[in-house]
Amino acid sequence: MAKGRERGRRRLPAFFSSGLTTAYVLVVGLTLACAAVVSGDREAEAVDHGAGEHNHSLVVPPAPQRSLAGSLKLPARPQGRTDFRELPPAERDGLIEITDDGQRLPRISAGGWMPWIAHARRFDPEGPAARVGLLMLNLGADEVLMRRAIEELPPEVSLAFLPGTPDLHRWLKASRERGHECYLMLPVEDPAGPAERGIRPIEASADPAENLRRLRTAMSRGEGCLGFVVPGPVLVAQSDLIARPLMKEIAERGLSLIEINPAGVSAMYRLTVDLGVGYARSSTVLDYKLAGPASIDGNLDRLAEWAGQPSNDRTPRHDFGVLQPADAAIDAIVAWRKRLQRQNAVALVPIIGHFECREACMARVRAQPAQLRP
Description:
Elements: E1 5-7, E2 24-28, E3 35-39, E4 53-55, E5 67-68, H1 89-93, E6 96-98, E7 104-106, H2 115-118, E8 131-139, H3 143-152, E9 158-161, H4 168-177, E10 182-185, H5 208-220, E11 227-230, H6 235-238, H7 240-252, E12 256-260, H8 267-275, E13 279-282, E14 284-285, H9 288-291, H10 296-308, E15 317-323, H11 327-343, E16 347-348, H12 359-365
Parallel strand pairs: 1-4, 8-9, 8-15, 8-16, 9-10, 10-11, 11-12, 12-13, 14-15
Antiparallel strand pairs: 2-3, 5-15, 6-7
């Protein structure tokens, strides 16, 4: 088992917690369908237990702990390939269900393709084994910033949109054309987050049927998205009673889940393991809006420095950070990407390169072998 290394960095408010990751990480988006399984450590409550050693080089302790990742050797990406899969028309059309009331909902195709893999961005398996990723959250509240993020951020940066964003289908199409992997923010009660427009949030007080209806409304606005992002340790994610019908719907439709700084092992995380859902989590908040006054440039550099350091067992490291849309954040990422390319020791990959896929998840992936083989 790989062992994580603790590292000080800026993060969400103190009542949030994080831990170690033990899992297989399904890597998709490499060639027509390359994948790799990577392993790390999860916190003590998860299936396995890890231990970490401390690094006090950063400015703000205590730090969340990262996971280490090792990947299987994969074939080189063929020249001329696009950043996204080009499925046969029947498979592509089969990823959408049109309901009686006209909603276009994601679904697993008859051939077994799951949207969270079919819509994933590829990355080069021949690049550095140490990997970092970036996810910009809550896009859509400010159209100017959303446009800047889509047009100026490196294509390896993944984007998460508010499902109530006007003309979201147009913005998602533009994002994909620019090479960005896309997600939806799960519409939940989040006092710290931006208000949704035209869509009601999933609430602990609502009955399960109503919450499912709201979830499907959000899904219908995110064609081509890989799944949902939970913005923090909200009550919906902590309660098995509330989360189970939602996660069952997400699983049955072949979507994935990302949690940002969840409090311990959430009910949603346990359900992803049981139901075979692709999953990722991060406690690395890089921007000043959530992390405090530290420099975004410095936090980005420290993220790459941590990933580039050799671990005790020489297993390559991986982690991804999250940011809110802001001019300062966009400028910092663009400049940092140039610095990262010059050092060539750490690869910037989309968030799909940081996913877990445990046993039940892998069984579902193998139902369509093309999701795993080149």
